[in-house]
Amino acid sequence: MVIDKAKGRAKQIKAKLQQIVFDDSHMRLTKVDAETALDYIQAYWHKLERFHPKDEGNLIGLPKNFLVPSFEAGHEFDYNELYYWDSYFMIQGLLDEKHKDLVLGILDNIIYLFERFNIIPNASRLYLTSRSQPPFLTSFIWDIYDAYGMDKKWLSKKIKVAEREYETVWMGTQKPNARQVYKGLSRYYDFNYLNDIAETESGWDMTPRFSRKALDYLPIDLNTLLYKYEMDFARYYELIGKHKTSEDWKNRADKRKREINSLMWNNIKSLFYDYNYIKKRRGTVSSLASYYPLWTKMASKEQAKRLVKSLRRFEHDGGLATTDTIQLTKFVPGVTMTPTQWAYPNGWAPLHYLVVIGLENYGYHEDAKRIALKWLKTNLDWFNKHGVFLEKYNVVTPENPPEKGLYPSQTGFGWTNSVFSYFASKYLQ
């Protein structure tokens, strides 16, 4: 009875949200509107820059300067370590000559971590070496190669490390890297074999996607990223003239794509879903992880067309919600739940970046611009009122604070600042 009432309440809220007429004020944004915010961001980077060349307690020493996700003076929750996937998104707004040494140094630090620990840890803390984070190493390498015109010798050295990370960590079949578990596809993992810690490897800590059983799921985002690794390796070997090796990598990517489409594409809902390989069925949570195949160019043109139509599930005045609906457990009296900040109504900078670039990849330029401008306005309105950027936002009711997670909400914020700068340079007149 309680569950039925909860479902009814959720449907009412969803129906109400679908009736909302979107505010179009974001379409009138210009670079003049963003000048103060952009100046703030440029002045903020030095607050996030660190140099710790020697191990200190559980903080791992790194040879080059790096960026931490956020800094707020006097805040009890403080960062002093480099994070894997945060670093990738932070450099997107820094790929210029001014920041070249910093960007190259961050990549060198990430490679140093792999060579020391045989894994790129969640972050540069000894207690975070039991898991990694979503694999963006090949993207990191190619973005720098393309932005700065690096030579093939540099590229070769970096790609060889990425190949070792791919084989050792993501294609491992036994502890400490038991990630490849079903039909050549991989899962998020933690060598303590704890579901909640494996979930943090996804970067989505925490999310309703895996029902607190992350070890049982083949995630759509992870396996799509590994498809991109395979295609990135194919691009490298084609570039150096090893065409047979390039074809081998393309064949591996094609095989992965077939398995992903077979297990994870829902033809009725026109979305990709995580796959529970223990129960042999797709998950039920609709999320923006479904749009990784656009960013990696894995989706077919027909899938892309249908994914664009499905954007209405997630799109609100403030941008894209991470999942498409509120969780039923919020309405069930007496049910305790882990805070899931990677869910409705929150929106996150890296997911907006991936979706927008994915839409651009398939020619949906107006949709990409609309979403980018909504995200810019949400960030800008909060900055103009409060003088800070946040790690996440409530995109359903942008004037309200975001839903809280397991740790205190952060201001700053590295990847928010970077994606804001990137979108502003691309979409503001």
Descriptors for this entry?
429 residues, mainly alpha, Glycosyltransferase, 3-stranded antiparallel beta sheet, two-stranded antiparallel ribbon, 14 helices, 13 strands
Provide structural commentary.
The chain has helices at 2-19, 31-48, 84-91, 100-117, 137-148, 152-170, 195-201, 220-239, 243-264, 292-295, 301-309, 349-361, 365-386, 414-427, and strands spanning 49-50, 66-67, 180-182, 185-186, 217-218, 265-266, 271-272, 275-276, 281-282, 315-316, 319-320, 346-348, 392-394. It starts with a helix and ends with a helix. It folds into 3 domains: 1-47 and 314-429, no CATH class; 51-152, no CATH class; 171-302, Glycosyltransferase (Alpha/alpha barrel), CATH 1.50.10.10. The protein is mainly alpha-helical and 429 residues long. Helix 5 (137-148) runs antiparallel to helix 6 (152-170).
SSE map:
Blueprint: H1 2-19, H2 31-48, E1 49-50, E2 66-67, H3 84-91, H4 100-117, H5 137-148, H6 152-170, E3 180-182, E4 185-186, H7 195-201, E5 217-218, H8 220-239, H9 243-264, E6 265-266, E7 271-272, E8 275-276, E9 281-282, H10 292-295, H11 301-309, E10 315-316, E11 319-320, E12 346-348, H12 349-361, H13 365-386, E13 392-394, H14 414-427
Antiparallel strand pairs: 1-2, 3-4, 5-8, 6-7, 8-9, 10-11, 12-13
Helix pairs in contact: 2-14, 3-14, 4-5, 5-6, 5-8, 6-8, 8-9, 12-13, 12-14, 13-14
